[in-house]
Design goal:
Oligomer: single chain
Number of domains: 1
Number of strands: 18
Shape: globular
Helix content: under 10%
Structural class: mainly beta
Largest sheet: 11 strands, mixed
Number of helices: 2
Strand content: 35-45%
């Protein structure tokens, strides 16, 4: 797909929607989301937990640009219950990569609470392949209400807390972004997410991050976050390799929870447009956390309980 010239911090008016294969209108609701987010900032324990798991993910994933490997943790990376990781490769038949645009589209199963015996944090999250991109995630922790958050890797961290959380919306305020999906004949609540990182000026290395949620009532994408930044991506640290994963904090088994997970994870870059199949991703599972796969379709849809 051709790269279109864009002004710095240009607000998208349309965004590709892979389920229909068409561009869909975008509504700008950032002001409303910012007001909600200001009132629902994460506690310091959540920020520290997220930073701790990030250090483990970045340190244990091999960034040598081999097609795919973990450094010494081939099957069971610490802190991940299960999930899908990208295969990084210049060959689109063997993996995924990008030059000037990358977007992860996925349905995050959005229960109001996690359920189960554990009170440990759990993040249902995904990178969009770019190490300067965003992660849109659902934070679960019993008995608290689920919260939708966005972490922007390009955004300057808070000088005191080191947080890069920029969007914080509790489940009760998801509204028309909470849509029903059918998996294996059963219906589940979800939010349909698009996390895009786009180069807007190749000469000055200007990029921007856009995060949109699909609105089931208006049939539009709603822009909840947008941020311009300058990025020169070194080859060895250009990618974050985790796609949709269930990331855990703590060692208490989660036991039988409400069914959570992800559906239809699809990576769209300037090089490739594909569901996360076995050629372009790998599925991992760590039984220690008792987040047992209940249903799985290739590597792009997984439900656990």
């Amino acid at each position: 797909m051709a790269e279109r010239k864009k002004d710095l911090n240009m607000i998208p008016t349309t965004l590709y929607e892979p389920r229909s294969g068409k561009d869909v209108a975008v509504r700008d609701i950032r002001n409303n989301i910012a007001e909600i987010s200001e009132q629902n900032k994460p506690p310091i324990d959540t920020i520290n937990a997220f930073l701790d798991t990030r250090r483990r993910l970045v340190q244990t994933v091999d960034v040598s640009r081999k097609p795919f490997s973990f450094s010494g943790l081939t099957l069971n990376p610490t802190g991940v219950g299960c999930g899908t990781y990208y295969r990084i490769s210049n060959n689109p038949q063997k993996g995924v990569d990008f030059d000037f645009m990358t977007t992860i589209y996925w349905n995050a199963i959005g229960q109001s609470t996690l359920g189960g015996p554990s009170t440990d944090l759990l993040f249902l999250t995904s990178s969009n392949l770019a190490s300067a991109g965003t992660e849109s995630l659902i934070e679960y922790q019993n008995p608290n209400e689920a919260v939708f958050r966005v972490w922007d890797w390009s955004y300057p961290p808070d000088p005191q807390t080191k947080s890069r959380f920029v969007v914080n919306v509790p489940h009760a305020q998801w509204g028309d972004h909470l849509i029903t999906v059918t998996i294996d004949g059963n219906q589940y609540p979800s939010v349909y997410i698009a996390n895009r990182t786009l180069r807007t000026d190749p000469i000055t290395n200007k990029w921007q991050n856009d995060v949109c949620l699909y609105n089931g009532a208006t049939q539009t994408w709603d822009l909840v976050w947008n941020y311009p930044f300058t990025w020169t991506a070194p080859a060895a640290t250009k990618h974050y390799e985790w796609g949709p994963i269930l990331e855990v904090k703590g060692q208490t088994p989660y036991g039988t929870t409400n069914k959570i997970g992800y559906m239809g994870a699809q990576i769209v870059t300037d090089r490739i447009n594909t569901l996360l199949d076995t050629k372009r991703s790998i599925f991992i599972y760590n039984s220690d956390y008792q987040l047992d796969p209940y249903y799985r379709q290739d590597n792009y849809t997984t439900l656990v309980d």
